Amino acid sequence: xxxxxxxxxxxxxxxxxxxxxxxxxxxxxxxxxxxxxxxxxxxxxxxxxxxxxxxxxxxxxxxxxxxxxxxxxxxxxxxxxxxxxxxxxxxxxxxxxxxxxxxxxxxxxxxxxxxxxxxxxxxxxxxxxxxxxxxxxxxxxxxxxxxxxxxxxxxxxxxxxxxxxxxxxxxxxxxxxxxxxxxxxxxxxxxxxxxxxxxxxxxxxxxxxxxxxxxxxxxxxxxxxxxxxxxxxxxxxxxxxxxxxxxxxxxxxxxxxxxxxxxxxxxxxxxxxxxxxxxxxxxxxxxxxxxxxxxxxxxxxxxxxxxxxxxxxxxxxxxxxxxxxxxxxxxxxxxxxxxxxxxxxxxxxxxxxxxxxxxxxxxxxxxxxxxxxxxxxxxxxxxxxxxxxxxxxxxxxxxxxxxxxxxxxxxxxxxxxxxxxxxxxxxxxxxxxxxxxxxxxxxxxxxxxxxxxxxxxxxxxxxxxxxxxxxxxxxxxxxxxx
Length: 482
Known about the structure:
By secondary structure, the protein is mainly beta.
């Protein structure tokens, strides 16, 4: 080999192939000259021997244990059963720091196993089964086989630019007697698995692509008697994981306790297939469930504000989208795919639903719960109600209903011009209650203004009520008392 060697041809072939076997002359020196040329081209180089390399992935990239030579000394029993073990840094630890390319030169490569030359010892891939649902968590993809829903498959460790790789050896069987799995999610370092009546958790990193290394702890049952019946209802967020069970919408908290949070909207979800999607809109602290019931005529979304723990129902009068296939977050906006192939998305610059050819004004309204200041049937006197908020334009209508009767008998409206003329900031509106003696009362807000252009609506911050309790129970007719 000439002493004056540029190494450009060697470097081009190495960069093209990624790995190269070199038969060096016995007198040596070739490797040091070529490594010097690589360093001159900007590479970080490492020279080592293939003897005693062990697991290449562990020795090169991970902290690992080694047994030092005993040097003829007798062990006094202070070490482990395998003798003294020392932890050492990965062989390429320092070389991998920074952005420079790295070249590893292994001497005595003839001692390597033939498997290392071909596959690196990585477990061979198998075609995966058809999955009921898949989920990505902890650098792997997880799937529930559609033909064997009492097991769980997980992929090899995912890498950039590579499709998920599966092997039949990477699967977890559920405990005997459990019903079939329905959905998968994740929370922190835990994988959450659902059946129709139970919730399980799996913790751990699992084996590497060689089938060695770590393992999984679980599945461990964390909830019994409540599970997931609809995979489309599962959504993870700062609160934990929300899902639909056969009793309504539940939340699995980070402490692995299950809470029923869907009591306010339990009448809106009457079937296991009503929820078509569940999306976390984190910038608004919301979870949105799109509803696609069989008898539905309006686009309906259940919105849960997990910061204030408040439910609202969004309904659209637009005929463009009435039922949904699914929804997602696209460019930070909640985007819905309708069954008629229309796509609808949030727009903060518009006050309309639908498209330019079939648009309807967006109306904001809310109804408070029944307010019972003197118990379920206690008697009280309600004199006035005061609404505090910020006016952003449009008409405001306030109404009151009494005694668990959904018929409105008290109503008052203010036009946009009337509210602007009040010159109050924040907006403060009062509603006189003509029917003061009642056992319960609730209020309705709406900004619907027939024929007028839609506006931003209002922000209602608080509702204050001026009341006085009365002795005795609610006054009933003589015919009601027997």
